[in-house]
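Suppose a colleague, Dr. K., hands you the sequence of a protein chain of 347 amino acids and asks what its three-dimensional shape might be. Before reaching for any lab equipment, you can write down a predicted structure in token form. Begin with the sequence itself:
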Amino acid sequence: MKKLKLAIIGCGSITKHRHAPEAKQNPNVELVAVCDKNLDHAKAIAETFKVGNVYDDYKKMLKEIKPDAVVVATPNCLHADATIKALKEGAHVLCEKPMATTEDECRMMVETAKEMGKFLMIAHNQRFNEAHKKAKEVIQSGELGKVLSFKTTFGHGGPESWSSDRPDTWFFHKEAAIFGAMGDLGVHKIDLMRFLLGEEFVEAAAFVTTLAKRYPNGNLIDVDDNAVCILKTQSGAVGTVTASWTYPGSEDNSTVIYCEKGSIILYADPKFSMIIRYANGQKAYFELDTMQTNERQTKSGVIDEFVDCILTNTPPKISGEEGLKTMKVVFACFESAKTGKIVKIDY
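The predicted structure, expressed as tokens, is then:
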């Protein structure tokens, strides 16, 4: 079988620790080129992963290499441009989260993929976690009855400890990142809850703020470092999504789903990735997998899924349309934080 020619745009930490190694591990992939405006970063990835072509201009790379597929792992402000240009050059695209920085950009990405007949997938890796997949099965089975409420959290000490351009990372600068912790971490949990609950959010209320993170000059960063959001689903369930860059010590990447006949606890225990607490007091323990962290990267399954979709001509489940629905909730949370009002989400 002819290998899929894959190129990566953006050579930061997510490419170093996830996309490049997962591409090299896939037997159906040939990693043919890497690109970053910081040529030293691109060269470092190329040397580590034995990639022959190195660029600092993705437009040039796309025209010269003509890859079958592209991973977009740039700063957020470039997601839409890099994705659209790659699609127009005939490549399928896997785009990192957050999908894009405006709803119009998201729509343009979706429309371009349709126009070009190419797949667009968004890299929401938490859908591939074994405990999350198992929890979705339990919820869909009706074993625990109707979902009433939930709380989900993604918080750690901040990107400056992990980013390739630390400590004054692009994540802290609004012109590159647009969003802070909400777009970096909160978007994952919003997408996860849409996946787990199998329904859309229709209302959002949120506090999105900057409390602690500072630039080297002592000023607070100009993107958010904390967000707490209250969301309501179509069926009336209400719950919270929390995102933070100011959690000292160990990461919190946990979720609890409260149902009529019990609750599901995900990634809150060091040994058991899923625990079911039944209303009668009984408990069931599941030792399925461990949550990936910045310090402990395991195979996410995202690249394998993306490649499999292309090779089997199967549209990705985490499509551009799915990414847009998740981003609608993100944008609603920012609007609520700005206006101090509950925001209805229109699909």
